[in-house]
């Protein structure tokens, strides 16, 4: 079947794009959304039903639409779950808000474009006549689009060691996808758990264990042992400096940010000033400086930039202080079994000592790596066909400043990307405030390109 727009993907980026297309396209237009995720738009994180799983951005900045910044707060108030703009809503509520917003647009009686949701996986593509792109689906169908928006994300990080040699009973106690919270019901209250990765996903899983009444020990292992910081309970105003005046080297930027933090009295206010200008700053950096940032500064950027709600942070720190949660820094190089338990061997960071950790459960919280296109057979095929290119840093696919995909065959098809796949161009493109602006801009370009008879 032929469509004016095909959106490939079923997560937040895809639904943000679709919502904007519904608002901007004429009633004559046809849009297809292709994805094999049953919770269109909610994604993994926003389907969590645990009240302790909070957003990492205040509710007042989580509207789907940049021109209506209070939409999510209004939605919460209408459902008797009022929050102030500076408060942090639950992830479940945000997933419901995304679902309800899309449903309301689809129910609107005013003329709008047609939207078909196709629950299938795109397994291949081929260029068709009249500058269109056809996608082969795993249900045997094919759809064709004149404008295509890729919203496929970047996949999940694999465990850092090969587990294929482990016996099946030990493999059953290794959790590859912790967001399927059913694994928690198999954990006894006094078992021991080891979590690989010390980022935001780790904190979510620690809190989930706590909510289940878990009383055992939790060991957390990551290469540097760095843990996300918390938001301030009473945020200070943004620091008084202009990010446009920052140097264009990573070392120079860090020196000036440290000076500004001392002057402001709270590094969070410096980050709050920097955040809206991060994309512009990234695009000013030379390729060598971008590589230097990824090699040396990225882990520290993550824990300062991607913070957790204050009450979540306080609860986590209490568990660390009590000794229930222990953070380790080192490089994992082996997993084996003994006495019906898993044994992890790692080398301590900055030392030659090898440490052994024993646990009943191993949970992969290494999170989402910026793995480029390696996770997606579809994207790999499209690159072989010359339809897309990897960006120079291999963070995703190459796009220009308008999110138009760079290719060896420009002009053959109207092809865009939205979300984490465009990190090479924009860097700061995984949070809702950035994705919603990108989705709106792409939808507007498609609308403008199509004219009144798209």
Overview of the molecule:
This protein has helices spanning 12-24, 71-78, 91-107, 168-171, 200-211, 250-264, 267-274, 278-284, 287-305, 310-322, 377-384, 423-426, 432-450, and strands at 2-8, 30-35, 114-119, 122-128, 132-137, 142-150, 174-175, 193-196, 218-222, 325-338, 341-348, 354-359, 361-364, 414-417. The chain is of the alpha/beta class and 454 residues long. A hairpin with a 2-residue loop joins strand 10 (325-338) and strand 11. Helix 1 (12-24) packs parallel to helix 3 (91-107), helix 1 packs parallel to helix 13 and helix 6 (250-264) packs across helix 7. The model has no long low-confidence stretch (mean pLDDT 89).
Which terms would index this structure?
single chain; about 450 residues; alpha/beta; FAD/NAD(P)-binding domain; 3 domains; seven-stranded mixed beta sheet; 14 strands
Detail the topology: elements first, then pairings:
Elements: E1 2-8, H1 12-24, E2 30-35, H2 71-78, H3 91-107, E3 114-119, E4 122-128, E5 132-137, E6 142-150, H4 168-171, E7 174-175, E8 193-196, H5 200-211, E9 218-222, H6 250-264, H7 267-274, H8 278-284, H9 287-305, H10 310-322, E10 325-338, E11 341-348, E12 354-359, E13 361-364, H11 377-384, E14 414-417, H12 423-426, H13 432-450
């Amino acid at each position: 079947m032929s469509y004016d727009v095909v959106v490939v993907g079923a997560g937040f980026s895809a639904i943000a794009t679709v919502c904007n297309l519904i608002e901007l396209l004429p009633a004559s237009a046809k849009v297809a959304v292709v994805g094999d995720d049953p919770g269109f738009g909610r994604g993994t994180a926003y389907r969590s039903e645990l009240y302790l799983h909070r957003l990492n951005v205040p509710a007042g900045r989580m509207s789907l639409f940049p021109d209506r910044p209070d939409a999510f707060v209004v939605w919460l108030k209408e459902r008797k779950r009022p929050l102030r703009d500076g408060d942090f809503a639950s992830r479940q509520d945000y997933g419901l808000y995304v679902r309800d917003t899309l449903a309301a647009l689809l129910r609107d009686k005013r003329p709008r474009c047609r939207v078909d949701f196709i629950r299938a996986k795109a397994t291949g593509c081929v260029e068709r006549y009249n500058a269109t792109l056809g996608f082969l689906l795993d249900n045997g169908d094919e759809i064709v689009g004149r404008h295509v928006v890729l919203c496929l994300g970047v996949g999940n990080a694999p465990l850092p060691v090969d587990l294929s040699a482990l016996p099946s009973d030990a493999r059953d106690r290794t959790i590859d996808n912790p967001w399927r919270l059913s694994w928690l019901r198999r954990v006894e209250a006094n078992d021991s758990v080891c979590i690989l990765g010390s980022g935001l996903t780790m904190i979510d899983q620690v809190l989930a264990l706590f909510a289940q009444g878990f009383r055992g020990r939790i060991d957390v292992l990551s290469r540097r042992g760095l843990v996300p910081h918390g938001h301030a309970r009473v945020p200070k105003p943004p620091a008084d400096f202009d990010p446009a005046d920052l140097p264009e080297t990573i070392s120079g930027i860090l020196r000036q940010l440290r000076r500004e933090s001392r002057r402001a009295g709270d590094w969070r206010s410096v980050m709050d000033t920097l955040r809206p200008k991060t994309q512009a700053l990234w695009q000013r950096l030379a390729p060598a400086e971008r590589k230097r940032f990824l090699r040396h500064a990225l882990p520290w950027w993550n824990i300062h930039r991607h913070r957790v709600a204050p009450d979540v942070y306080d609860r986590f720190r209490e568990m660390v202080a009590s000794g229930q949660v222990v953070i380790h820094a080192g490089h994992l190089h082996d997993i084996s079994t003994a006495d019906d338990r898993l044994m992890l061997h790692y080398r301590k960071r900055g030392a030659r000592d090898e440490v052994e950790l024993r646990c009943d459960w191993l949970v992969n919280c290494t999170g989402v790596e910026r793995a480029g296109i390696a996770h997606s057979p579809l994207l790999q095929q499209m690159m072989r066909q010359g339809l897309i290119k990897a960006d120079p840093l291999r963070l995703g696919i190459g796009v220009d400043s308008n999110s138009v995909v760079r290719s060896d065959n420009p002009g053959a098809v109207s092809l865009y990307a939205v979300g984490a796949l465009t990190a090479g161009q924009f860097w700061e493109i995984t949070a809702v405030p950035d994705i919603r602006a990108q989705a709106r801009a792409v939808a507007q370009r498609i609308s403008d390109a199509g004219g009144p008879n798209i």
